[in-house]
């Protein structure tokens, strides 16, 4: 469970860092660009243009042309590297390694591109599922270029490889190196930061709070308490959820609370006081994560004692009370708000959460009279509450009033009015209201849906045809819907034609998959048309 | 020794029963004939033995029929026993002629008859037993001797039957019989024999893309029609002069395969052909596109992509449990898996698949037959089977896409699970190839109406995957032999 969680977090964070990785290695320095002759620069720029436009096939031939014409140029290794990267994008990883990156290393071993190529070889192996070869390639990179940027990238990839092979020790070792040893430059900072966060979560989960906090401090000098609280909470929640690890979770929570308390600002200015109060809130959050209500209440009392009452304090305490299913106590806190309107809004929302719609509407109504500037907002909330309570006539009455009083938001109220009619099953009225909306193709989609419910299949088909013509991205969806509509209208042949059209015209779309399966399952038709290739 | 044991007919009948039983186990997949090195005549041997058994039992039954009125029980007993060779012979014939629907129906019908027949015998036996006890008790009443209730389940007065003795006796007999029948059925359908052997075809070859065929372009010179009385001097060329011009000078200098044997093959045994085995699993439609006009089309088309190789005419299927029965080394190099509904694997089946992939060096060729749901279920299944392996997209220039037919694109019918093939690689070998776009539909009659370029590439892809699996397995078998 723990390992899975760690792997998920690591994959997510490393995934974010991956995009930034490649860019810097794929560039040639300005000094070296300056060394190129005009003709060389011209040819290389053409190739670069196609590469930027992701037209890798053309870029590939342009880089190849450069290599043929200017083999001894300063840009040759760079061109060879980019040629190989084109192959990677064209999903020809084996050729990229054997004919591309390896050639960079063999022919221009001293060039900066050779270092990058060594890393890319490892990456290609990894993406090709060759875990062992990838590991070896990365180890070579670390050995030959320990101070280079590629070392950081290799470590990051090795951590990922370790997560695949469930080698927790190797994964943590890579994170440690990235967090504490690797020099953070503009290019390497993102992956080092990601590693520090992963390491922190690992440490918080494995009873090593001190190291985790240190890891986060390498990334967040100023906001470390916020981050410690943020990253410690989930491990604490997980640990305290199980009886066997409950004590460890509580210990980590106490360590985190003590660590954050040490960082509470001690100044007397208003700014420092606010910062101190916010830091105390973090302590309360940590206690809340450790499932110890007494400590949470104690902390909030302490904050109130030390810093006085504030909406922020009431809000946090009330929201925590809601998580403890103590809605009445939460509302009592909301009612203490200095900003009465916002307090009432929160009270109303808490009623809605409990599905006590009448009380919620009454609470919003109180705001209509108390906050005359935002009457439209509160009326909108009242209407929405009525809809949630399925009291559609009441909601329609409110929207009708809003259409008259809040002209600036006419489009919004028209849409809500149409949706309310649709939800109430009054499809004819809904169509009439959708017609007045201006948000094509959403309103057409809804209109077509209503027409189908009214069994006006012809009208529905006409609307879908209009969507197909007006919105390129929704065209396959619209044709598929035409198929379903014709099916409902019992026009079997036309339905089949529509489904086949989806497969034929949009064979790469997911809708083609649906249409194909539907044709086979419902109509037992194997000739569905379609067919595509991924080059 | 009793006289009837010395009777020639008894000896002959016993021999026939033993031979028939062995042949049935062999037919179910134990591969016993392999030990006698006569597996190539298996079909003939089976036909002869099963036919003979059916004929002999028919003769015995006919004889019993004559005496039916006098010896009814004997007649029913002979009928019940004779039913098995007849039923088995029918199923065997249906299987031999490839009438899959008939075979399945016969198998199901036979199972039903066996169950009902057995139940009738149980009821009869119970009734007979109960009658004996009743007679004994009545005799006791006459003599004044008290016969107490026993613990014998045949005794309707047995204490544990409670108040409604007859009902409880019948119910318990019915339940016990049903449970035993299910257990026996499970045993018979899962334990067909010791182990099944999957041989590779003899011959050899290299792992290289097929060389382009010689294309001969005939250039026929223009024919001039010249007036022989013309005043202009004209040199008339011979009318039939044809100049041959070779466009390609390459030719098939090698065959695709593995090993040094003669002809195309994978270093296996003579008269063995390449087979295509489909995996049966619970929960869904494993048999989607199975049989003539569907996946068998691939076997018909394969010779044009793998010249020199011999292929079976019919595709086969095995359950996950049956995969376990394969020999550790002589296991199938690849199994095909498709569907669009659910995949349900038990813990033991997951273990069998893992063992098949890792220890028997097998490979799964999965094809998404029609839904995103199947895609998710298949990936979840693989996560269970190989949790330590992460699937990766398979490169277009990977050997699996290049040999024997170099593919310049990845072909699919519709993207049920994306538009890229995914693979699970263990120690540099693909143990699973996942096709996301219904390749089976491209193989079927009509080719789903897609372009010829794409469905032809789908056949080529099938050939490549089969070649890859056979080649990897042949290499591994050789290594295992050397180890031993």
What is the subunit organization of this protein? heterodimer
Shape of chain B: elongated
CATH architecture of the domain at 1-219 in chain A: Alpha Horseshoe
First CA to last CA of chain B: what distance?
49 Å
Mean pLDDT of chain B: 85
First-to-last CA distance of chain A: 39 Å
Rounded to an integer, what's the Rg of chain A over CA atoms?
A: 31 Å
CATH superfamily of the domain at 1-219 in chain A: Tetratricopeptide repeat domain
The largest chain-to-chain contact, stated as pair and per-chain residue counts, equals:
A-B, 39 and 48 residues
Which structural class fits the helix and strand makeup of chain B? alpha/beta
> On the 0-100 scale, what is the average pLDDT of chain A?
92
The outline of chain A comes out as flat
The major β-sheet of chain A equals: none
Describe this structure in words.
The complex is a heterodimer of chains A (535) and B (484). By secondary structure, chain A is mainly α. Among the domains of chain A are: 219 residues, Tetratricopeptide repeat domain (Serine Threonine Protein Phosphatase 5, Tetratricopeptide repeat); 81 residues. Chain A is 78% helix and 1% strand. Chain A starts with a helix and ends with a strand. Chain B has 2 domains: 188 residues, no CATH class; 225 residues, Domain of unknown function DUF4159 (Rossmann fold), CATH 3.40.50. Chain B has 13 helices and 12 strands. In chain B, the strands form 3 sheets. Chain B has a 7-stranded mixed sheet. In chain B, helix 7 links the parallel strand 5 and strand 6. In chain B, helix 2 crosses helix 3, helix 3 packs antiparallel against helix 4 and helix 4 packs antiparallel against helix 5. Chain B is elongated and about 140 Å long. Chains A and B meet through helix 6, helix 8, helix 29 and strand 1 of A and strand 9, strand 10, strand 11 and helix 13 of B. Strand 1 of chain A pairs antiparallel with strand 10 of chain B, so a sheet runs across the interface.
């Amino acid at each position: 469970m723990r390992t899975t969680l760690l792997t998920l977090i690591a994959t997510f964070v490393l995934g974010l860092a991956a995009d930034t990785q490649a860019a810097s290695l794929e560039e040639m320095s300005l000094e070296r660009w300056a060394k190129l002759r005009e003709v060389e620069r011209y040819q290389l720029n053409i190739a670069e243009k196609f590469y930027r436009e992701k037209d890798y096939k053309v870029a590939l031939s342009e880089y190849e042309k450069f290599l043929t014409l200017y083999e001894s140029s300063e840009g040759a290794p760079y061109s060879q590297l980019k040629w190989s990267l084109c192959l990677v994008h064209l999903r020809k990883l084996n050729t990229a390694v054997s004919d591309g990156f390896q050639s960079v290393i063999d022919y221009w071993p001293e060039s900066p591109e050779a270092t990058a190529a060594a890393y890319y070889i490892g990456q290609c192996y990894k993406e090709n599922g060759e875990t062992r070869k990838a590991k070896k390639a990365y180890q070579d990179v670390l050995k030959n270029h320990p101070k280079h940027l590629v070392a950081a990238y290799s470590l990051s990839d090795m951590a990922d490889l370790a997560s695949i092979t469930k080698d927790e020790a190797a994964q943590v070792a890579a994170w440690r190196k990235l967090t504490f040893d690797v020099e953070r430059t503009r290019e390497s900072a993102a992956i080092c930061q990601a590693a520090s966060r992963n390491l922190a979560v690992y440490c918080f989960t494995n009873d090593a709070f001190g190291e985790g906090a240190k890891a986060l401090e390498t990334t967040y000098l100023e906001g470390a308490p916020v981050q410690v609280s943020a990253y410690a909470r989930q491990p604490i929640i997980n640990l305290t959820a199980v009886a066997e690890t409950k004590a460890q979770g509580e210990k980590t929570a106490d360590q985190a609370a003590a660590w954050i308390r040490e960082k509470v600002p001690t100044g007397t200015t208003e700014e420092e006081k606010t910062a101190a109060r916010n830091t105390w809130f973090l302590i309360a959050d940590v206690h809340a994560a450790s499932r110890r209500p007494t400590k949470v209440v104690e902390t909030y009392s302490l904050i109130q004692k030390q810093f006085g009452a504030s909406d922020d304090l009431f809000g946090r305490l009330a929201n925590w009370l809601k998580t403890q299913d103590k809605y009445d106590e939460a509302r009592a806190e909301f009612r203490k708000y200095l900003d009465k309107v916002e307090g009432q809004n929160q009270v109303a929302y808490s009623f809605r959460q409990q599905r006590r719609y009448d009380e919620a509407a009454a609470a919003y109504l109180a705001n209509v009279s108390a906050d005359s500037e935002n009457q439209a907002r509160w009326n909108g909330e009242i209407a929405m509450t009525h809809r949630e309570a399925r009291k559609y006539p009441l909601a329609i009455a409110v929207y009708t009033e809003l259409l008259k009083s809040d002209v600036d938001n006419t489009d919004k109220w028209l849409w809500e009015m149409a949706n309310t009619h649709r939800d109430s099953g009054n499809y004819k009225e809904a169509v009439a209201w959708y017609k007045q909306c201006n948000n094509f193709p959403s309103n057409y989609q809804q209109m077509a849906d209503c027409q189908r419910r009214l069994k006006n299949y012809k009208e529905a088909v006409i609307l879908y045809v209009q969507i197909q013509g007006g919105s390129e991205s929704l065209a396959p969806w619209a044709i598929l819907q035409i198929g379903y509509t014709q099916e409902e209208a019992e026009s079997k042949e036309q339905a089949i034609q529509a489904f086949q059209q989806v497969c034929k015209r949009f064979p790469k779309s997911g809708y083609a998959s649906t249409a194909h399966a539907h044709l086979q399952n419902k109509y037992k038709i194997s000739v569905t048309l379609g067919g595509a290739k991924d080059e | 020794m009793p006289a009837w044991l010395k009777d020639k007919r008894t000896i002959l009948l016993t021999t026939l029963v033993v031979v028939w039983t062995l042949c049935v186990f062999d037919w179910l997949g134990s591969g016993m004939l392999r030990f006698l090195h006569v597996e190539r005549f298996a079909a003939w041997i089976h036909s002869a033995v099963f036919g003979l058994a059916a004929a002999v039992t028919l003769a015995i039954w006919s004889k019993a029929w004559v005496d039916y009125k006098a010896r009814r029980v004997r007649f029913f007993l002979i009928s019940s026993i004779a039913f098995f060779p007849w039923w088995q012979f029918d199923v065997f014939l249906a299987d031999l002629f490839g009438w899959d629907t008939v075979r399945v129906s016969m198998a199901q019908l036979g199972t039903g008859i066996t169950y009902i027949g057995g139940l009738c015998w149980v009821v009869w036996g119970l009734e007979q037993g109960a009658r004996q006890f009743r007679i004994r008790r009545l005799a006791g009443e006459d003599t004044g001797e008290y016969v107490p209730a026993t613990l014998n389940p045949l005794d309707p007065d047995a204490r544990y039957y409670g108040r409604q003795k007859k009902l409880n006796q019948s119910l318990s007999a019915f339940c016990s019989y049903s449970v035993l029948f299910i257990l026996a059925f499970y045993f018979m359908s899962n334990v067909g024999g010791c182990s099944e052997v999957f041989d590779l075809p003899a011959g050899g070859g290299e792992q290289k893309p097929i060389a382009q065929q010689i294309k001969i372009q005939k250039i026929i010179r223009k024919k001039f029609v010249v007036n022989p009385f013309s005043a202009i001097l004209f040199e008339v060329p011979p009318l039939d002069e044809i100049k041959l011009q070779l466009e390609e000078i390459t030719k098939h200098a090698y065959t695709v395969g593995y090993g040094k044997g003669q002809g195309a093959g994978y270093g296996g045994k003579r008269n063995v052909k390449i087979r295509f085995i489909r995996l049966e699993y619970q929960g869904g439609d494993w048999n989607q596109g199975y049989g003539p006009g569907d996946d068998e089309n691939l076997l018909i088309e394969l010779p044009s992509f793998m010249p020199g190789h011999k292929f079976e005419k019919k595709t086969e299927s095995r359950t996950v449990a049956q995969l376990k029965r394969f020999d550790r080394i002589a296991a199938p190099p690849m199994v095909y898996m498709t569907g669009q509904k659910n995949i349900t694997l038990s813990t033991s089946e997951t273990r069998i698949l893992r063992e098949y992939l890792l220890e028997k060096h097998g490979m799964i060729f999965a094809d998404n037959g029609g839904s995103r749901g199947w895609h998710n279920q298949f990936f979840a299944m693989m996560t269970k089977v190989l949790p330590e392996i992460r699937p990766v997209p398979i490169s277009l220039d990977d050997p699996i896409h290049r040999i024997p037919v170099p593919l310049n694109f990845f072909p699919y019918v519709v993207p049920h699970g994306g538009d890229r093939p995914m693979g699970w690689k263990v120690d540099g070998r693909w143990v699973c190839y996942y096709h996301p776009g219904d390749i089976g539909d491209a193989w079927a009659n009509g080719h789903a109406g897609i372009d010829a370029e794409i469905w032809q590439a789908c056949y080529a892809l099938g050939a490549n995957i089969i070649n890859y699996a056979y080649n990897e397995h042949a290499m591994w078998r050789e290594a295992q032999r050397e180890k031993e």
